Amino acid sequence: MTTSIHSQDSFWQGVKDCIPTLLGYISIGLAFGVVGSASGLSIFEIALLTILVYAGSAQFIFCALLLTNGPATAIIVTIFVVNLRHLLMSLTIAPHFTQYSLLRNIGFGTLLTDETFGVAVTKHMQTGKLSGKWMDGLNITAYSFWILSCVIGAFLGKWVATPEKWGLDFALTAMFIALLILQLSSVNKSKIMHYLSLIGYMALIMYGLSYIVPSHVAVLLATVIVATIGVVTDK
Amino acid sequence: MTTSYMIWLIIGCALVTWLPRVIPFIFVRSIQLPAVMLKWLSYIPICILSALVIENLLDTESQSFVTLDWPIFLTFIPTVIIALLTKSLSITVITGVMIMALVRFFV
């Protein structure tokens, strides 16, 4: 029993728990590399963007804005808004790591993504805790595969066929669906109706907001609104 | 080839994506979050995950009004069922991708 608890916390368990997300990282990373080179970025620039920004949606938007010759300030502000949701994710995860050093906490935050966040909150729901070593295993695996995939995509450039044709663009959506179902299935039975009603509100609010703001802003606003509805309607 | 403008632009983008990620990790250490805030944060995972799923289900571009993205929605339904039945991340992702490829092939 002791060994199984220990192994659940280990670096290698983190690596293992990252594996289901890798198809998402690899397919989106390859696609980004291809799009980046098609947008006129050099392999060095693609690698630099991938290593320093490390956020799929932001990197795609960077290319799109670069192609439309957007001013630097517009690019930076847009990227900031697109990734502001990480503030909420980081706020959710950070309280579990207060016993670790400042430097390690900066490390956990630096490598936080939608996917690692989803895997971490699911792990926390299932085991009731999160360990630093496990988080490092998860984060470093995801980060390495993302960089590798983006750079390989950049090399493949125009030779790779459209990843959409093979359904690979759905890998991320499928992963979010699975993470959502895993979250819901670990929710207390008495609260399940409350959570389902929140998802209903989410659908309505996302739909409404989609008319007014870009979808990445809608995700951010809808999350803030629905989490507030959650607190207000909580019994 | 790479201009210094491009390097600074990438560094600027890196900075604005890095700060929201690390700031909570730096400050949560020294302050105790109020109970209502923690309660609010407990809803964030389900909210963000459902928002990201719904974002992908909506087609905001091809028509003047927002509709469901039908190929994605057709794939979404069986993927949810598979996720419910298997509770497995890997199986859901792999079958989801295969169903999407099939849907794209036929639709």
Automatic annotation (TrEMBL), chain A:
The keyword Aminoacyl-tRNA synthetase does not apply. It is a multi-pass membrane protein. Keywords: Cell membrane, Membrane, Transmembrane, Transmembrane helix, Transport. The chain crosses the membrane at residues 22-44, 140-160, 166-185, 215-233. Belongs to the AzlC family. InterPro entries: Brnchd-chn_aa_trnsp_permease (IPR011606). Pfam families: AzlC. This is Azaleucine resistance protein AzlC. It comes from Lysinibacillus piscis. The keyword Transmembrane applies. It is found in: Cell membrane. It comes from the Bacteria.
UniProtKB/TrEMBL annotation, chain B:
Keywords: Membrane, Transmembrane, Transmembrane helix. The chain crosses the membrane at residues 6-28, 40-58, 70-103. InterPro entries: Brnchd-chn_aa_trnsp_AzlD (IPR008407). This is Branched-chain amino acid ABC transporter. It comes from Lysinibacillus piscis.
